[in-house]
Amino acid sequence: MLIKIAWRNIWRSRGRSLVVLGSIVVGIWALVAAVGFMNGFIVGYMADSINHDISNIQIHNPEFKKDKEVNYIITDAETKIDKIQTWPGVKAATSRVLVNGMIASPKKAAGVQIRGIKPKEEAKVTQLDSLIGDGAYFEGIKRNPILIGKKLAEKLGVKVKSKVVLTFTDSHQNLTSAAFRVAGIIESSSLNLNEGYAFVLHSDLTRLLGVQDAHEIAILTDPQVDESIIVTKYQSEYPGDLAETWREIAPELALIQEMYSSMLYVLITIVMIALVFGILNTMLMAVLERFKELGMLMAVGMARIKVFGMVLLETIFIGILGAPIGLLLGWLTMFYYTQVGIDLSAYSEGLESFGYSSILYPYIENSTYWTIAIAVIITAFVGAVYPAWKAVKLKPVEALHKI
Amino acid sequence: MSVIKAENINKVYNEKTIPVHALNDVNIEIAKGEFTAIVGPSGCGKTTLLNILGGLDNPSSGKVIVGDTEITKLSDAELIDYRLKHIGFVFQAYNLIPVLTTMENVEFIMLLQKRPKVERDARAMQLLEEMGIGDKANQRPSQLSGGQQQRVAVARALASKPEFVLADEPTANLDSTSTSALLDIMAKMNEEEGATFVFSTHDQRVIDKARRVITLEDGKVISDERR
């Protein structure tokens, strides 16, 4: 009967109940949308940086980190890679040869980091092959192929099959130049990939530099693996090298991740507080209007805890009704925008200069839907506690004589 | 044997500011099966006395003993339980639960007492039939007239067969036909079920029906007439 009374009380004042229902629906929808968009914005940016550029773990000669001198190499890099790849949690690993230099076209020149990579292995670690927008991934050019970012190509005024000249200092401190032909143009929101890197074949660069082995080993781990465990293991096996996780390599990304978490908490808290006060206000009105009735219930022998439960039940029912509607709306919004993306091209110049994509694809994990729904129902519950407590504190004799 | 015994009841409102003496040394005893009216002009303390007899309010001094229990010593939670098990209430403004049907309103107290559904249904239907509103069992209070609603309230008060029923101005909002019908029903229930009724009223029609009339004036019992 308590459930029946609570349920029917909801529909006694439809307008008011719909306001509470609406605030729960909008609250859930807004949170789903906000989390989805923020995920798309920040997590997408981080995932791009980690998956396509930094990788989970990098290994260097400790001296190379201080001074990008080409002679500071990782010895026996390939042997080490073969071993690392047998470790649990490691998905792929590759070696790179790195040197800072200049890239020049007939029109212009620019400073770049020249990265000598092994195409197959690199593709496994950074999926670089998937970022080719124009041309092909080291194909179609017989001698000295090169991949550059779209922005760099525009800057240099070159396209696929255009000739560019790379100039850098080799291991003997001689200035070396070599001509390369653009095999493919990389399209990415990453600043480094877009205009900071030039990718050539590992064999071409080692030949020109006059070095063996590699300057960098990049490791891709399973998503659920704690990278620091692999780093510790590597350091104990090869104490002469320097192994670092992406957090140490790019502390700004770790900071972004922390900021994102904090912002998300702040956002959720603001929405929840607004919801609590909305529900509190509405339920308090519902209780104040029913003073006499609640007084009668206690006068005839209804225990205070049951009166308390009845007021809470009313809000919980509205929460249970509102949660699926809010979740459905949120899911539909996410589903639609995950397919088509949100075109931020009006702001793309500003966004791309920070490494963000101009098309935002919201993303939300399934478990987040439930977390949000439960959080909102708990919030509704909290919002109803004060009105319910107010009902319980009524003195029946006074409530019965309220006009 | 007395059902209710009120000894030296005093009730003072606003004790710390401007004291108002609502009841002054009231002593009454009400026996089982009585049909008693507490009468007097507005503000004489009728409702206050009824509230104190029903455990809805506490006296400033004095005690109320119902059966073997001194209810003035009970805690708030014990009083709620006590009212549930021993007292039926009829209010001036009916105070039915608007979202429940007539039948559910009558069943409500029995449900709080955790009586089985079969018993609840049978008792509620029996009372509604006796009140002459058996055909309104599935209607909500808003679909009934004032007189019909007050009959439902009486049925609700009697549903759990309480030791006594306290009715605060039960006819104040009713027309003469409804009042007459309600009084007949309550008198019948008093005779057939042996229910003890105590009214607060200044309605002459109720006073005429009562078999005992206690008159209050300025919070004091000035007469106690048995008929």
Instruction: Give the helix tally of chain A.
Output: 16
User: How would you characterize the largest beta sheet of chain A?
Assistant: 6 strands, mixed, barrel
How many structural domains of chain A? 2
Helical fraction of chain B: 25-40%
Unreliable runs of chain A: none
In spatial order, strands of the major sheet of chain B run 6-7-8-3-9-10
CATH architecture of chain B: 3-Layer(aba) Sandwich
Distance from first to last alpha carbon of chain B:
18 Å
CATH fold-level name of chain B: Rossmann fold
CATH class of chain B: Alpha Beta
Strand percentage of chain A lies at 15-25%
Order of helices and strands of chain B: EEEHEEHEHHHEHEHEE
Treating each run of at least 4 consecutive H or I residues as one helix, how many helices of chain B? Answer: 7
Gyration radius from CA atoms of chain A, angstroms: 31 Å
Structural write-up:
The complex is a heterodimer of chains A (403) and B (227). Chain A has 16 helices and 12 strands. Chain A has helices at 2-10, 14-54, 62-66, 77-84, 119-126, 150-156, 191-196, 202-209, 227-237, 246-249, 251-289, 291-299, 304-340, 348-353, 366-392, 396-400; strands at 57-60, 90-104, 109-117, 132-135, 145-149, 163-169, 175-186, 197-201, 216-221, 242-245, 342-343, 359-360. A 6-stranded mixed β-barrel of chain A has the order 2-3-8-5-7-6, surrounded by 4 helices. Chain A has a two-stranded antiparallel ribbon with strand order 11-12. The mean pLDDT of chain A is 87. Chain B is 36% helix and 29% strand. Chain B has a single domain (2-226), classed as Rossmann fold. With 227 residues, chain B is of the alpha/beta class. Chain B has a 6-stranded mixed β-sheet, sandwiched between helices. A 4-stranded antiparallel β-sheet of chain B has the order 2-1-4-5, with helices on one face. Chain B is built from 7 helices and 10 strands. In chain B, helix 3 packs parallel to helix 5 (146-159). The A-B interface holds A 1, 4-5, 8-9, 12, 292-293, 296-304, 306, 396-397, 400 and B 51, 54, 56-57, 76-77, 80-81, 83-85, 89, 91, 93, 95, 97-100, 104, 107-109, 111-113, 156.
